[in-house]
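Entry 14. Ran structure prediction on the chain below.
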Amino acid sequence: MHASLCITFGTVITIATQVLSHNGDGVYKHVAVFSVDGLHSSDVEKYVGLRPKSTIASLLATGFEYTNAFTSGPSDSFPGTLNQFTGASPRTTGVWYDDTYDRSFFDAGSNCKGPPGAEVEYAENLDYDPTKLFSGGINATNLPLALVHGKCSPVYPHQRLRVNTVFEVVKGKGKETAYCDKHPAYDLVRGPSGQGLSEGYFPEIASAANDVDSIIAYDQLHVDAFLDWLDGKSPPNAEGALSGVPTLFGGNFQSVNVGQKTKGYQNAPGYPFTPELLKALDFVDVSLGKIVQKLTSVGLLESTLIIVASKHGQAPINPSLYKGIDPLIVTNSTEVEVAFQTSDDIALLFLKNQDDTAKAVRNLKLNRKKAAIQDIISGQRLTYLGYGNPKSDSAVPDIIVRPDLGVCYSLSKKKIAEHGGLSDDDRKVACFVSNPKLKKTRYQYRVSTKQVAPTILKALGYDPAELKGVVAEHTQPLNGF
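Output, structure tokens:
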């Protein structure tokens, strides 16, 4: 772990107030970022076909659409969020998943005693009481520990992050920032300094029932916060304070994500939305319409850029492909001791003894069919493909197992899809920008949601090179900027 303790978000919509030119270049007064978790690029086309007079359709009519945009790999919410707010991937941010492992950390409550190596989970487990919407934020006693300058210290989510965020850059200019997401653990976006947000708003999603109607009600809290921020006000239970409309603000929507996981798509040509998923999409569209109306009423719409780019997609889109497999089949197939395994529609394996990697890979290959394995990434391929080196980085897994499309290493009966994996269904996401003065353009080149971060800073008139992750990975703004 880096001695300097170091903290991000599904579909992102970035709103920026433009004061110069209207061709994608120029300087903007405000940027707002909203995530619609799970939204695929194909969902956008499908939805506009069903709702040609929707808010999304009107935004696309005056904007740039990126039809071949990919989020992070792995496509978990944490690296997906950081993709957009740092301009960097897990190998640079050090953040692989919201539930993973670090060979240099210690368990919560251990006082850093015993050998290092601990689960690092940043979700509702950090709350004082995850059954409540607001229970006081992060309980420090639930945090993993690390030795920093010889002292045993709790590691907050923002301290896990190794590079700065757009929120830190903007706040460092004397501007105000605000952000909301599904757990207090999204303290992550504050960045390594811990100072990136003027105001944070983190109602706990685990306190709500896992169905579309309940999550729509939960998402309404986020919508209310966005509207409050556009009035220069703070929502109840927010952390921090504002003196006006923040320069950079945003948050996420969860209802589409839950609709995909619980009801999904119809098993018919084109995989139409189920009624429940369409209901969630309609809610998001109406909510975006309310934000546009608010922008109009406060005089910002004509000078506003809107960027949409998902944290993650969801797999599989084809419901007939979903198959749950016991994650222990992967663990046991290695025939070596596994210290920790992250399991979704991907498996990240941290071995007790890294010298066992070659043996574990050989055994996984022998059990490829049983574990429904499409690919096994380890050794030099990890480095070559841009994932990092587990021998020199305590956060990098020794082995990445990519299952067949539709396979999830879980026995849960409560879901029919998941994200986190490396498939196109996981990673090919919605991405577009819109402004009343922009000419409708479709870019079919492959882009990354990492490019959202430098686009935000360039839109505000700041140098994208102020982001360490942008410099490290040579990340460029989106086409048209």
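Residues 177 and 248 are 5 Å apart (CA to CA). Will compare against last week's run tomorrow.
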